[in-house]
Predict the structure.
Amino acid sequence: MSPKKKIETEGAEGWEGVAEEAAAGALAPNPELEAALKEAEASLEAREKATAAPEGSGDELAVQLKETEDRLLRLLADFENFKRRALKERTDANQYGHQNLVKDLLSTVDNLDRAIDHARESEGEDFENLLQGVELMQRELMTALGKHGVVRIEAVGKAFDPAVHEAMAQAPDGSVAPNTVIEELQTGYMLRDRLLRPTRVIVTRAPDEAEGDEGKQPEEDDASGDGGGSGE
């Protein structure tokens, strides 16, 4: 195969592959890439027109083919540069894409260090202040995560949703509708509209006849316990 034919074949195959990836959505929209594709198409059209020119215009045809080859070589070089830049951007995104989240969490780490130092100095005597410090750090942490789209999945008292809940057990309870979440074992989280992990829960089921009284007993105990607490 002649050098000219080889260049033409490599150029055509390279840009056909790029066009197929762009049509399939494999490549993200990029103005630079779109401009390069348009220029490649124009070059190919010019080459086809030149090939179809009359036999008498041989010199002009040679000039046009030379120009087309030069344009294709430049486009191929531009595309290689584009691929290298895209690969670098993708690598940087994988390695440093969470940089802002980490920076937001550093203040929480600082407060945790202070709380640990304070607990050591007080030798565990100042438990109330330590507890308040831990609660403060929890709020700071949730605020930092919330800035990046992370939210808790509410569960207790809601109907079981297999899309965001993971049932770990069932408990008989006739006071609420079956498949209602009554206890949360592990909190779940969403990253905007994507599930990070489901909430592990215990859900209710309708009690059997033999379980009717037993299923209600804990609720009666809790109610009496709450009443005693409010009386105090």
User: Anything to note?
Assistant: The longest helix spans residues 58-96. The chain has a mean pLDDT of 75. The chain is about 65% helix and 15% strand.
